[in-house]
Design goal:
The protein is of the alpha+beta class. It has helices spanning 2-12, 23-33, 61-71, 76-87, 109-119, and strands spanning 39-40, 58-59, 121-122, 137-141, 147-156, 163-167, 174-176, 183-189.
Length: 194
Amino acid sequence: MKLVTTLLLVASIGITTAQTFTGKQLSDAAMELTKQDVSYDPSYFRIAYPLGDVPANKGVCTDVIIRAYRKLGIDLQREVHEDMKANFHRYPKNWGLKKPDPNIDHRRVPNLMVFFARFGRVKTISQDPADYVPGDIVCWDLGRGTPHIGIIVNKKSDNGERHLVVHNIGAGQVIADCLFEYRITGHYSYRVKF
């Protein structure tokens, strides 16, 4: 009975494993974002639901993830919001919310970490570059508990030792050699074929 209830819940909120893609496809979607001129802007925006987005010329690190997945037909705004409505108790209460907010919940790194851990694959956190492949999602602590998130892409560092990251840490949506620059706090794969 528990299995049937779980399957019905998953089906009702649209979280399925049927829509998958390769790590290269997610990597390509993320790299495409670096061609857009985006200013770092952590402001709260009221946005449409589902398929809402902040203004195209604005964003933060989470918007890189949201936009890359959206290029592949996955609306993380809806998926995170629907899971938070059904399982609000599982998500952090860092912002004093009493209920989910579809304008911002998917734009918060701790919420994405919970979501990817629940519905994706939690991967090893290590200092071995070989453990991080295109399409992986990596989260960091930038210091003082400031979270950050990015996507590993199919492009290597100048010395060829590690894959690069697409993220937005203040300079827009960029490709950077920053995998081990900060303390890694999460490593996930979501809807990527192995």
